[in-house]
Design goal:
Length: 390
Amino acid sequence: MPWKECNRMDERLRFVAKLLDGEKMTVVCREFGISRKTGYKIFNRYKDEGIRGLEDRPKSNYRHPNQTPFQVEKAIIRIKKEHKTWGAPKIQEKMIKEFPMIKPPAPSTIHCILDRHGLVKRRKQRRHKAQGTELSDTQVPNGLWCADYKGEFLLGNQKYCYPLTITDYRSRYLLACEGRESTKEAGAFPVFERAFKEFGLPNAIRTDNGIPFSCPHALFGLSRLSVWWLRLGISIERIKPGHPQQNGRHERMHLTLKKEATKPASFNFLQQQERFDDFLEGYNNDRPHQALNGMYPGEVYTPSAREYFLPETPQYPFHDRTILVTQCGRICMGRRKINLSTVFAGQHVGIRELTDGIWLVSFMDYDLGFFDLQENRVEPVGVNPFAPKL
């Protein structure tokens, strides 16, 4: 049988370990009795999420439990097309009369459905509207940085090391290589802050969709780390899940890092970090790079002219109110508490009443979602401005 049911996790770990040791995918899949398709799926999950990606996942539902049934959505669109001037509250009342046996969606949900289908006209605003985060191919240093965690490995003292690496896309310059005890965001913040202080700010940062760069349960998959980048004026770029080749230059550096600085692993973090520091110096200033016509990355890279700064409070002159999100991720309006997301805790957002008791929530130049007078949660807008390029 393909996997030992008693301990599938150990089998997956052994499978990935053989691939990391340089064995061919076809040979390893034949040894474990699985197809190459399954083998690549497991390996890509490991690349994207680390060891957590090898854990068993719950079976996904046919649809999300909070998703509006498509029959109800079609009825909402039909009513809107028949009555072009009607807003969400009036459509809700019409739904109650037409379908008294069905609980109608909240006005904010109806408004989101209309917005997703382009049936909502928004007021024009005299400000720059962010265009999302398509993958770029910049040709200047600091136009794009790439960041990722190289796969964890076991030190001699039996503790796992998670190297967090940052490179400049254009010059291949290795900006940081820091061994961390986990992939938690608390360990990532100081690494990026040191890089920003030393090299300035990039225009954008490209990552995968794993923690701490993204949070799968938060609004649009944002995390506290990515929200901080937005505050600094840094755009977010995300690769398509399961497609590490979209961050290929960075992955190629990881292969060199693995060969030269992790085998065999050092005994403790201090010894391993010393090897990382030596690797960084040699990679940048002593290793000719074929893609750079034999030049060193250090000969091509120049620090950014954008200096690191402490961001000021965002201003929302075209909104009705500016509100500080609570530490539990809520927007407080009087006695009402509207759930937004904990990744925005401590951040200022702007809210503006659009029409008929429906409010728009914005963060900087991004419209996040809507809420109404009935439901105490924010429904996300139809288009995800941070979605990875397909």
